[in-house]
Amino acid sequence: MYTDTNIWQSGFEPNEDQYDHHRSRLRLAFLSFRERVGQLIQTIPAEIQGLTVHDLSHLDALWDMADILTGDTHGYNPAEIFVLGGAILLHDSAMTVGAYIGGIQEIKQTPEYADAFAQLQSHHPQSPFHTTNKSPADATTEQYAIGEALRIKHAHKAEELATQKWISPIDNSEVFLIDDTDLRDHFGRAIGRIAHSHHWDIHDIPKKLGTTLGALSGLPKEWTIDQIKIALLLRCIDAMQIDDRRAPRFLSAVRSIGTTSLEHWRFQNLLTVPHIEDQRLVYTSKRPFNVYEAPAWNLCFDTLQMIDRELRNANDLHLQKNLPQFLAKGVAGTNSPDALSKYVEVNGWKPLPLNLKVSNVPHLARTLGGKDLYNSPYAPLRELIQNAADAIEARALIEEDFSIDDGLISIRFIDTNSELTLQIEDNGIGMSERVLTTVLLDFGFSFWKSSIARSEFPGIQKDVDKFRGRYGIGFFSVFMWSSEVMVSSRRFNEGISESRVLDFQRGLESRPLLRPAASGENSNKWTTRIQLKLNKDFLNRDLAELTHYSVRPGNHIDNTIQANDQKSWTNRVRLLCGTLPIKVTLDHSGRTENCSLPNWRDCTAIEFFDFFNAAVIKSKNEDDPFINTLTSLSAPKPLGGRCFISPTATTRDGGGVAIYEKGIFVNFTRVHNIYGVVESSTTNAARDRFATPNIIEDHNWIKSVITKGFTHCKNIGEKIALQSVGAKLGHLDKNQPLFIRNRELISLSELYRIIENENFFSITLSEYSSGFTWRIPEKISIILGLSVDEKKVYPLIEFQGSIQKDSDITTLIERPNSSLFSLLKEITLLLGPSSEVQCEFVDRNGYTNSYCTLTILKKSGIPAH
Q1: Segment 675-703, tens digit of pLDDT
Q2: CATH assignment of 361-555+573-588?
Q3: Are 837 and 855 in contact (CB under 8 A)?
Q4: Among 3.30.230, 1.10.287, 3.40.30, 1.25.40, what is the CATH number of 599-709?
Q5: CA-to-CA distance for 352 and 405, rounded, in angstroms?
Q6: What is the pTM of this model?
C-alpha cells in the first residue's frame, strides 16, 4: 500500500508533535483528491486504447518508487510531500475526455486533434484509416484521433487540473479535485506545473521552477516548496515504474492492444520491481525473453537507457543546486545489450549493440545529399529557396496576422576583394535551438511529418500537403557549393536576442558550433539566414565543374554564368522559383530584381512574357503577337498552369514549358510550339522527374488557344502554320484554310460540303522511306498550271500517317492512330455506310517517286471520269 511507504508515513501520519493537525489536514485533503482523480481517470483505457495501466494502481506505485530512490532520509517536508502526491495524481490524469470542460468538441477544436486526424488519414498509406480524399471522419478514425490528441496534450493539460472547476449537472454546484480552498489556491499552481514538467526537457526545470514557494499561512514556515526537487523526483519515479504491475497478463487478455503497444506490455509484464545494488537500479526478468519476444527486449533496453539518462541528469542537477542525491545514480546493464542480458535474460538468441551503423556519416551526406543525388548544379540554391518557402507557408498557417503576401525571401551575393558570400534570408517560421541542433543535422529526417513538428507547432500537420520538403536531405546539398556555412535563426515569435548561429567551419568534416548570434547576425526583418562563403572563382570555374553532373535528359539549364552577370543570375533564379506565391528578390552587383511572380496565374500576357521569356520561354521574337493566346489550363489549383501557342516562335535551346512543383522548378518539357509554365508534382528526391502534365489532353485549353491564335494571324502563312500546330494537338479549325482543290484554298468545312455534293474524295500519296504519305505539294503548278485535276485534294499541312502496299486500309481507317486516318474516317462517315475505299498503286523508276491514289466514294454515286 502507498500508505505504508516511508515518504507517506513521514509526511502524513501522526508524529506526536504540535504539527500533527497540519499533517492530518494534508492527509485528508490528499485522500479526497485521490478519490476524485480515481473517478476522473477510470475511462482512460477506453479513450486511449493500448496504454499500459494508467489507473490508481500506477499512481500508488509511484510512492514505492519514491521510497526506492530516497530511502528513509528523503528530506521532504509534509507540504512538499502533499505537492508531490498531487503531481503524481495529475501527471497522467488529463488522458481522458473528462478533463476537458467542453468534452469531445473541445478536443476536436485543438491543433493536436487536427494533426492526429491528418496523420491517421494520410501519413501511413497502409493504415486502415488512410483515405485519398478529405472525406468526413468515421467513428473509428475520430476515436483514435481523439485518443492521440489526449495523449499528446495530457502533460500540458495537467497543469490546469488542480485549479479547474467542473459544474455538477445534479445541482449546478462547483466541484474541484482539491476541495480545500486554501490548499488549492496556494499549492494548486505548483502541483499543476510540476505535473506538467514531467514532459519538459530537463534543462527547462531550473528555468521554469527555480523559485521556492513559501509556506501556506498557518502551516509551519519551514514547510516551503522546493519545486525543482519535487519535479526531478516525479520525472524519475514515473520513468522507473515499468514493472509487471503496469501490464498484468489477464488485463492484456481483455483489452484491445495494438501491435506497437503490445511490445510495451510484453516487456513490462516480465519485469520485476527494481531494487538498488551499488547505487544502481537493478531490473530483472521473471523468465528469459524468447526469440519472438526480441522486439520487446530491445524496447526494454531502450527504455532502461532512458531511465538511466533521467537519473544521471537529475543527479547532475542535484549537485548544481546542492540538493540531496538519489540513492540510485543510474541503471545496471544499460551500457550494452550484453550487460543487460545478465539481468533481463534472453533464451535462444543474443542481443546485438545498436541497430544499424553508418561509419562515415559525412561521406554519406555528401553522396546522397550532394552531387551524386542532385544532377543540377543549382540544386543547393533551389533547396534553400524551397526550405525558405516552406518556412513562410508554415508561419502563414500559424500566425493570424501573417499571410503569404507578407513573406519575403531575399537572395544576396556580396562580392568583396577577398571573398564571395551568398546569403539567403526569409521571414518564415524560423528554427528554435532544438530544431537547429537536431532536425537540421539529422540527415534524412523529414521535419514536417515528425512528432517534433507537432510539438513545436501544434496543428501544422493538417496542412502538411502544402509543404515542399519531404526527404530531409535538401539542406545537405549546400555542401556542394561551400564548406563554410552559417545558419542563423530564431523562432518567429521570439526576440532577436534568442537568435542562434549554427556554424559549419569545415563542412561535414568537423562538428558545427552553436553560439548566440552576434551583432549583424540577427534582425527583425528576417528569422533565418543561410550564409555560404564561396570561392572567388566559384561562378566561373567551380559551378562549371559541377555542371558535369547535370546529365539527365530534359535538364536543359544553361550553366554558363559570369561572376558579375546580374541578368544571367536573375534568369536562373527566376527559373528556379518563378511561380512561387512568395516574393523572392535577388541583390547582385548593386541591383535588386524580383525573381518570382506570385500573380502569374492572373497577370497580363505581356507581364507574364516579360518575366518568363529569358528564363523559361527563351523566344528570340519579343514582339510575338501569339503571346496574347496565353490561357490557363483546365486543371484547378494548385495544379494547372498558363501557356500560349506560337507557330512562328523561334527559341534558344531550353525553351518550352517549365514544370514546377509548388513554385519550385522541376524540369522542362517540349510540347508542339507550346510555351509557358505548368504546376505538377515530382516523383523522386532529386526533383527532376515529374508526373507528366496532360497538356495535349486538355482539349478545352487547346480549342481556346487555337481559336485565339487565328485572331492574331496576319497572313495566310501564319494561319497555315497554326493549323499545322493544331493538327499535332488533335484540333483542326474547320473554318480556316487547310487544303488546295481546283486552284483554291479551302477549309475542312468547305471540303466536307464538296464531298457531300459530289460523293467523292481523292488524294495522291507519294512513296517515301516510311511508306506512302500525303505530303504538302512542292510544285506551284497545282495552282498556276494550265491544266490541273479539279477533283484532287492537296494538303497545306503535314498529315501524319502512312500506308504500305499490303496494308489493310479499311482497318487503318476504322481504328485511326494518326491525323491522316482520322480525317479519312471522318470522310467515310460523312459518305455513309455505302462508301468504298479504293487504293491504286503506281510504280515508277528513276527520279519520280511511286505513288498511290486513294479514293473514297459512294457506290451509288460513282462520278464519270
Answers
A1: 999 998 765 554 555 556 678 889 999 99
A2: 3.30.565.10
A3: yes
A4: 3.30.230
A5: 53
A6: 0.72
